[in-house]
Amino acid sequence: MTGNRMRRRAAALVLGLTATAGLAGCSGASGDAAGDAPLVGVAMPTTTSARWIADGENLQRQLDALGYTVELEYAEDDVPTQVAQLQAMVDGGADALIVGAIDGTALKDVLAQAAEKDIPIVSYDRLIRDSPDVDYYASFDNWRVGVLQANSLLQGLGVLDASGQRTAASGPFAVELFAGSSDDNNATVFYNGAMSVLTPLIDSGVLVVPSGQTDFATIATQGWSGDVAAERMATLLPAYQGTGLHLDGVLSPYDGISRSILETVSTLGGPLPVVSGQDAELDSVKSIVAGEQYATVYKDTRQLAEVAVSMVRALLDGTEPEVNDTATYDNGQKVVPSYLLAPQLVTVENYEAVLIESGYYEAADL
Length: 366
Ligand code: GAL
Known about the structure:
This protein has 366 residues and is α/β, with parallel strands linked by helices. The protein has helices at 3-14, 19-27, 50-65, 79-91, 108-116, 142-157, 185-203, 216-219, 226-236, 255-267, 282-289, 301-317, 351-356, and strands spanning 39-44, 69-74, 96-99, 121-124, 136-140, 173-177, 207-208, 249-251, 274-275, 296-298, 338-341, 344-346.
C-alpha cells in the first residue's frame, strides 16, 4: 500500500467511520453502501490442480469467518480470462484483491486501475511482476523449495543420506531436469534453488544429464502441464537406448508433472526413476506411499491463506501487515514486502507425521 493510500484509510478510521464505511469511501466502490461488508476479490489460476482448489477454499473460509464478502474466480490458466476477472472485480467495487497470477507479467494494466481506486493488492504464492501496484506478497521460501527438491532427488539416488549428509556414492547417475512454467516467477526461483545444489554434482560427474538439457528455457514446462512434460519425457527416453545408461532420477518441480513423468516412463517400460515433486497433492502422496514418486514438497495452503487473509485484514483496517522479508522479491518495479512460509520435504518416511498428524489429510484419504 502506498503511504497515501495507507494514510487515507487511517484517516477514515480516525474520523470514527466503521472500517467498512471508511473503506467503501476509499475505494469509491459503487456496490459498497455504508455498513456493507468489505468485498475481497480472489483470483486463482486454475482448478486443474488440487492445490489451487484447496487455496481457494481456504481463502474463502477464512475471509467468510471475518465477515467479508468474497468473490472467488478461477481462470483455468487462461491469461485474458484472469485479466477480465480482475477487471470485473475492480469495476464491481472490490475493496481488496488476492491474486494467484497465471502470467506474472500480464496484470500491470488492470492492477494500475485497482491502485487508482486505492484497492490494495496481495500477490498470492506467485509474485506479480513488472507492476508497481503490488502491495504485499504471501508465499513460501521458493528458493528453499528448489533446494529441497534437489536434495530429495539426491537422497533418493543415495548421494545424500537421510540426514542430508553426502555419502560415498560417486555415480554417475543419469538424471533429467524439468522446470515449471516460464511465465510463473516461482518456476525460475525453484530452478535456481535446485541448480544451486545440482550444478556442482553435474560439474564433478556424479550426475550426468544425457539429454544435455539443463538451461531453464529448454527444460521449462509451459502451463505446468503434465501433458507437456509427458511429451518431453517421451522424446528423451529413446536416446538412452544402447548407451548402457538408464534414467536414474528426474528433477520435477510439481506433483502434476511428477505423476506424468512416472506414467510416461512406466508406459515405455522403463524402471521407475527417483522423482521429486511439490504440493503434496493427494494423488502424489498415494504414489509416494505406493513406492512410485519419491518425494514431494509440502506447502501448507491453510497457512498461506492465513497469511494472505491477515494481510488483507490489516490493509482494510489501515494497519501494516506483518512481513518477514523485505529484500528478496524484486518484481522489476519494486521490492515487494513479503511473508514467506517454510516448505517441508515429505517422503514415505515422514508423510504420516507431516500430513496426517497435522490434519492436512485424513488417514482414510490415502
Ligand atoms: C507454482 C506453485 C507450486 C505449484 C505450481 C503449479 O506457482 O508455487 O506450488 O502449484 O505453481 O501449480
